[in-house]
Design a protein that fits this description.
Blueprint: H1 19-22, E1 58-59, E2 67-69, H2 75-82, E3 90-93, H3 99-115, E4 120-124, H4 136-144, E5 154-159, E6 169-174
Parallel strand pairs: 3-4
Antiparallel strand pairs: 1-2, 2-5, 4-6, 5-6
């Protein structure tokens, strides 16, 4: 590619040249406009696998109650979930499990529920009254729900209504599997 000889700048202000003055010696790339352009990708209903970072949920914790909303989701979904407007279609009880076992059980349960096209499920984790120290499962559950392989399936989560276990259980609203 040959470079044009520098041209004398004729702009009014030599200290502050115009864009066209700065670009006067630029030549177009050979090949014209045949460059490949990236195509917009359609959102996928399958879990993402390439990004190892957890999904950052908007959190709404108040005392023992926990709630979270996936990015881009309408807060009305969370309000309905907290109010018990989505009846749980399945449940898993984590009582008696250690944290690693419970995390795997939650992951497998949510993947199966999503494949079976369930929208709302209940996870019974307990309040930690029979644990030494704190309620480990209840505290760790929000982190598990944002991890790769699970987080992309979850729209929202919330502590359950008293009839379903209160703060010892959580509703999980899953994305639609189409």
């Amino acid at each position: 590619m040959k470079k044009k000889p520098p041209q004398e700048k004729t702009g009014k202000n030599q200290d502050n040249p115009s864009f066209s003055d700065l670009m006067s010696d630029v030549e177009p790339l050979s090949g014209g406009s045949k460059r490949a352009r990236p195509r917009a990708q359609k959102p996928s209903s399958t879990p993402r696998k390439e990004d190892p970072r957890p999904i950052v949920f908007q959190r709404f914790d108040l005392g023992e109650e926990q709630a979270g909303l996936a990015p881009g989701m309408d807060k009305a979904h969370l309000t309905k979930l907290k109010g018990g407007h989505f009846p749980p279609e399945d449940r898993v009880d984590l009582h008696g499990l250690i944290a690693d076992e419970a995390r795997v059980r939650v992951r497998d349960f949510l993947k199966r529920a999503w494949r079976e096209k369930k929208r709302c499920v209940l996870i019974v984790h307990g309040r930690g009254h029979h644990s030494e120290g704190e309620a480990v499962l209840r505290q760790d559950l929000p982190d598990w729900l944002t991890q790769i392989g699970v987080g992309e399936l979850v729209m929202a989560f919330s502590s359950a209504q008293p009839k379903d276990g209160g703060v010892g259980a959580s509703y999980i609203l899953l994305r639609r599997n189409r």
